[in-house]
Amino acid sequence: MQERGDWPERSPWIRQAVDRLPRDVFAPDRLWHWNGHAYLPADRAADPDEWAELLYGDPDTAAVTQVTDGVATSSLSCQAIVVDMLDSLLLEPGHRVLELGTGTGWNAALAATRAGGDRTTTVEVDPVVAEAAGSRLAVHAPGIRLEIGDGALGLPSGAPYDRVIATYAVERVPWAWIEQTRPGGRIVTPWGRLGHVALTVADDGRSASGWVQGLAQFMPARGTTTEPDFSSVRGAGPAEDERPWLRDLAPLQEDWDLRFALRVALPGLRVAVAEDEDGLNAWLHDHTSWAMVSAVGDGTAIAYQGGPRRLADELDRAWAVWTEAGAPRRFDYGLTVTRDRQYAWAKDPTGPCWYQP
């Protein structure tokens, strides 16, 4: 973190808090690693080196702490993102803080070193996870209020809050979070599983708006439907449409600004890119429609499509709009939330926007 310049200068308290409450203090004795096919356990007692590698090997990697039916359902967020999101929260001593998604309790404990344990509340939906976190917090960060409940509902009994922070990704920011935050208060949340935003509640309390702060992959809210894979959406039938594909796919694989722009313009679209002996290929789906851009081997590619939508065509148009707008960077985007709608925008909240379903 030090070598990369990842400790935020405006929030020196965060490094002090991490030094005081290191990540391993809140990690369970069993972590999980993905071997390419399934999650396998790594126990602290049986294999301390692997356990430590999963926890500290990469500040950009989350440590999976719970696997349910073969799916990762809880994790200790990667250190770089925890630090970045706490910095984005602009937390001050005495702020009333609501955290949604307790997990191991580490993030709440760090926040409490700044705001105060008696000013910090955390909500966890899983009673088993909450019990383990409560035991750790009682030892290392006493005074924090821990409640079991649905984070999407916030916690009205403690409102209004000065700061709200979520540790899991939402596609739509729950209105309850905004209702329970005072005017001028700040909400930091992962959005769309690709980045996190910091929203400021308007003076009249009728909206919240703010900028994208950074990119990272996040777990979705508990109970989110498991994503189907491309093959199950594609099925075995013939393509309903095919046409030449004229764009180089390399930016779709490498340019995260483009990836973010497409996520904004085409919510729900899932994109994967990989290379074979013929060149780069892409697979797209939205749970009901699909498209495949297949390299032919002579430098050209063909787009095959099926389902109610023509996803390759939509991707091509959204890509063109982004290019014509000057290829805005991810940090040029923002989000506005009202009671009835949510929309993303680039560079200016009053300019062109994309309404989110």
Portion in beta strands: 25-35%
Rg, nearest Å: 22 Å
Number of domains: 2
The CATH class of the largest domain = Alpha Beta
What's the end-to-end separation, in Å? Answer: 37 Å
**Element pattern in H and E:** HHEEHEEHEHEHEEHEEEHEHHEEEEHEEE
Number of strands: 19
Q: Describe the largest sheet.
A: 10 strands, mixed
The general outline is: globular
Return the CATH topology of the largest domain: Rossmann fold
Mean pLDDT over the residues? 93
Helix-strand makeup class: alpha+beta
Low-confidence stretches: none
Describe, in plain words, how this protein is organized in 3D.
This is Protein-L-isoaspartate O-methyltransferase. Its EC number is 2.1.1.77. This protein is α+β, with helices and mostly antiparallel strands and 357 residues long. It is 27% helix and 32% strand. The chain is built from eleven helices and 19 strands. The strands form four sheets. Strands 7-6-5-8-9-10-11-17-18-19 form a ten-stranded mixed sheet, sandwiched between helices. A five-stranded antiparallel sheet has the order 12-16-15-14-13. Strands 1-2 form a two-stranded antiparallel ribbon. The protein is globular.
List the SSEs and their pairings.
Layout: H1 12-20, H2 23-26, E1 30-34, E2 39-43, H3 48-56, E3 63-68, E4 71-76, H4 79-89, E5 97-100, H5 106-115, E6 120-124, H6 127-140, E7 145-148, E8 161-166, H7 175-179, E9 181-191, E10 195-201, E11 207-215, H8 230-234, E12 241-245, H9 250-254, H10 256-265, E13 270-276, E14 279-285, E15 290-295, E16 301-306, H11 311-324, E17 333-338, E18 342-346, E19 353-355
Parallel strand pairs: 5-6, 5-8, 6-7, 8-9
Antiparallel strand pairs: 1-2, 3-4, 9-10, 10-11, 11-17, 12-16, 13-14, 14-15, 15-16, 17-18, 18-19
Helix pairs in contact: 1-5, 10-11
